[in-house]
Amino acid sequence: MMAQKRMVWVLWSIGRSSAHRHAFIPMSGHSSSSPIIQKPPPLHSENESLLENLSSMGVDLNMARRRQPGVLRKLLTNEQGLAQFLMSKGADQETIASIISRFPRSITRSCEHLEERWKLWRNIFKNDSEVVGILSRSPESFFRSSDNENLQENITFLRSLGITPKDLHRLLTTAPRTFSNSVELNRNMVELLQSICLSLGGKDHEHFAKTIISKNLYILIRSTNRVKANVNFLLSSLTLSQAEALLLLQSHGAQILDLSHESLKRNFKNLQVKLQCLGCSKADFKKMILNYSLMLFISSERLNEKLDCLMDAGIHIHQIIQKPKVLDFSLDILNQRLQDLSRLGYDFQKNGIAVLDSSKKRFHAKIERLGPLEMESAAV
DNA sequence: CCTACCGGGCTCTGCCATGACG
DNA sequence: CGTCATGGCAGAGCCCGGTAGG
């Protein structure tokens, strides 16, 4: 059996230094009656010539060892083939070394396997360099699974959902792990989403699932338990009507399904308490979430800071509830803008707070219109 | 010309646990 | 037992501009 494997291996490894194959000398010369004594080429030691090989390629051995120690003990590996392959696709030495360091098992893939997998990815990407980019960003996404058939099935499955080529591209770019999931796992998530739609009285469950995926490209790498828990939590704690829920989940709400359940609950409760302290009603709270649920992404401390800084500037909490999108901006930007506006004597009660929710360009244009004399100070 | 509404773009890996398999 | 493949988790926002309509 070993011999057979080896022959296949030889086909893989053309062009590779044969040094470490010779290191494979089965424990000959040791007395079989004293297994404890046999120390020298023990089964569980690292393959020295492999280490040398990797080292000369610039691989960080300590990192590799920490991540997948077993690979360094292997006798048959394809690091040279992998390197040549990636180089032919435009990766440089440094990138290759980094890929191997971060995901050592990559060197166990055969050249044929690599060719095939690459071809499948290229179905979705425009060119090789895009694939190289993803690989260097996330080697694990490409290499963790060796199941090319599953990859093909995934692509077929996702296409069958009616996901556009553009979204498929975004999906693989943004959440490449999706494609290493088993088709079953992806299908489970899609079916969960569809069943959520149906349970809410939605008519087009396929469109619903597709919409959520395109709004939240990470959804397929979340667990169904998390998504289920988050949806249930939102439905019950906000007492949403079916129509409200369908609407929310197909818009900005799709993204907050990503949060770990604990974070969602924590951020949710914090906001609830905060609003309560400010004298707001339950309806206010609900309205705020429906207006812009993404602020649930913001950690409680940060959100409180933002709310406080807005209110210190004389903005009323009900203005924020009407337009929670202003919380989308960083604390720095908010503070800067509040300063600029207060210098100009801007009256939030009279003029509203929409001015805070604009791009830099538009905000500065606005400031200039409000107070031409203050241009320099407003220009950051 | 100005504003409000609205949606989009960017972005997310690297680690651990577990079960299958040999 | 060791290795592999796979599932799952923690962590926790910001910014831009098209465009309809005043």
Automatic annotation (TrEMBL):
Query: Where on the tree of life does the source sit, at the highest rank?
Result: Eukaryota
Subcellular locations according to the entry: Mitochondrion
Similarity section = Belongs to the dus family. Dus3 subfamily. Belongs to the mTERF family.
| Function as written in the Swiss-Prot or TrEMBL entry | Catalyzes the synthesis of dihydrouridine, a modified base, in various RNAs, such as tRNAs, mRNAs and some long non-coding RNAs (lncRNAs). Mainly modifies the uridine in position 47 (U47) in the D-loop of most cytoplasmic tRNAs. Also able to mediate the formation of dihydrouridine in some mRNAs, thereby regulating their translation.
Oligomer and partners: Monomer.
What name does the UniProt record give this protein?
tRNA-dihydrouridine(47) synthase [NAD(P)(+)]
Q: Which organism is it from?
A: Triplophysa tibetana
Part of the intact protein present: 1 to 380 of 992
